[in-house]
């Protein structure tokens, strides 16, 4: 029988986690190696140049472009404030019907063109700050770019998420991993917290979470059309559709993480039990997901002190050997998020729909369908 080794989601009760915190442009690192940091600690800062804005000054004043230097009250390189008088024509007899141009924004005059009659103003740079995101210590400094932070604690990776980085206290609100998460489970006391449910979050619960102001929701699964409808409502875009290439930048009220997939899928029992142990502790969460070039998993990180020995269990990791009967999750379209088991492992490579010849497996999905997919398109899930 042919076997393969496929990574699955990591769920650990106590592990070492390294997070790279990098600025989008070169800037200044504000901490040094060995410094202790909190999630809100600003570890690096930079200034992002603003795009220059161009104005057709000569046309607005009704003069020839070549006459522009004669009416200007500023020169190239000057800093101006919004509302400053930048240009004024002489008018009739030097007094009447003068045309004036006031700065529409604050910034620096970078362009004066007697050829086109245009001027360009660049607004002040935008400050960019990179925060630590997790509690830990600075392991390495990346000069002018950022830092690598090491954190010891619990880690739960999800299969899919939306929404960016947030902080909140863990609240397990359902009675078990197979219980759906409904609006009755979410209350005002969960404001700013991370609500953890069981098998499925309902549309009503999504809207209740947004109304209450939770920081995040973690659930086993969701109906894909419910998620799309919720995001379309939050983004005020009736044509919105979610992709699976990369997520995490959605401007939504909270971060949502699915641990199992799409549909009514119970959260893995040991994952749910770990969340119960973490009740009341602060979590750093991020829904960013990328499943194509460079896998990026949504995550829940709960920093723990080394003295908390009760959490030092073995990592909850599924076996890495792929064989007939192994429970798997499909992680590529058109079966993304589907759960099933390995039905057959052909030894010889086969041609797939894309035209590539790769090693494949036949998977029996939860609804009984038998599909053939590349082995790289699945991951092993733990046996409950």
List the defining traits of the structure above.
about 375 residues, mainly beta, OB fold (Dihydrolipoamide Acetyltransferase, E2P), SH3 type barrels, 3 domains, 11-stranded mixed beta sheet, 5 helices, 29 strands, elongated, disordered N terminus
Describe this structure in words.
The chain is mostly beta strands and 384 residues long. It folds into three domains: 4-46 and 130-311, no CATH class; 53-122, OB fold (Dihydrolipoamide Acetyltransferase, E2P); 321-380, SH3 type barrels. The chain is built from five helices and 29 strands. It has helices at 57-61, 68-71, 203-212, 224-234, 269-277; strands at residues 4-5, 11-22, 28-29, 36-37, 42-48, 53-55, 79-80, 85-88, 100-102, 107-113, 118-122, 126-131, 136-142, 146-157, 160-162, 166-172, 194-196, 216-222, 255-262, 282-286, 299-303, 321-322, 327-330, 339-344, 350-351, 357-358, 360-365, 370-374, 378-380. Strands 2, 4, 13, 14, 15, 16, 17, 18, 19, 20 and 21 form an eleven-stranded mixed β-sheet that branches. Strand 10 (107-113) and strand 11 (118-122) form a beta hairpin. It starts with a strand and ends with a strand. Mean pLDDT is 87; it is low at 1-6 and 314-319.
